[in-house]
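haha ok so turns out i had the wrong file open the whole time. this is the CORRECT one, sorry everyone. sequence first:
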Amino acid sequence: MGSPRRILGALGLLSCLVFSTYVPAAGAIAATAPATASAFRELPRVPFVQRYQAVQHGGLVRASNSSITCRKEEAPQAEPCPEVRRGASGVNGDYDMFYTEVDKDPDTYNSTRAELKIPQGAKVSYARLYWGGNLRVGEQKPPEDSGRVLVAEPGGAYKEVLADTVVGHRTDAASDAYQASADVTPLVRKGGTGMWTVAQLNIAMGRSEAGAWGGWTLVAAYEQPQEPLRRVSLWDGFEGLAAGAGQAAAQTVELAGLNAPAGSAGRIGVVAYDGDRGNLGDSLTVTADSGRRVSISDSENPFNDVMNSTITEFGQSFVRQPEYMNNLGYDADVFDLSPALSGGARSLNFTFTGESQGQFLGVLFVQTDARR
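then structure:
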């Protein structure tokens, strides 16, 4: 986001969301039938629902990248674009933003890659691709194009992927934001480990007070008999976390039915849009049913700026092309959840607070050890 005059108050506060990992059987929640890119259903607010959950020997992996970056400074206070790409503070509204392109194909735009590391011998049980961005910046992109992207598995050619469920699409005075997703389990089972490429995300270029932002994340659950028994859970939706730093903007997501033993290992992944590096006040804390409360942060995601345009895993970057440190409005981070599980947990409460200008939340995924 750009100017602090911009707020997401029109979105309303992120509602208190309560989920349970108790479902009739492991597997994907039924989605609507695939539609053409121009015929998908849209809603301005999509409450979070559990998309997939299972208790199995295995875990969760993901690949992710942003699809647009700065090209030129447009505000007097803006840090040089090369420094921002290397991790300096900077907000997208201060720059002329342009597509990132890695495939050298003149028939595509904003192509980026990232590595999906599925353990050797593992079987993919479920995989879902998420993509989203801002449709109105220096230009207005047509929302009917939001339900389509191109995906290439490692060493493969592009294939069209269409959104197969409701697309979150919210327009306000400052931005025109969306998130879409699709079940890509067969494609990921076939393509496996390696560099995945995603292109043609519907994102607007240019410069505005709101700024341009967007990217994609591929989440895969896998089974591997040699790994510990784990509960893996994936949710998605499209919710606005309203402007306003501190506890006044706090909202809670409850994850029940864990039954994680003491000393369990775990991880949490978050995909969020339009968080700015250097705009403080946003945080993520986890409270176990025992009352133990842990602030989620790491070396690249400070406790008071956790949605800071990073794509990291336990504070470390991973193989991507390009591998920018400040992704100017796109977050896809995986954090260590183990400290919150030291005493065991039947349930966990994830509490988000908003920075001074707000964000959008799109995906949550959690992996914890399970009792035998």
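The chain has two helices and 23 strands.
again sry for the mixup
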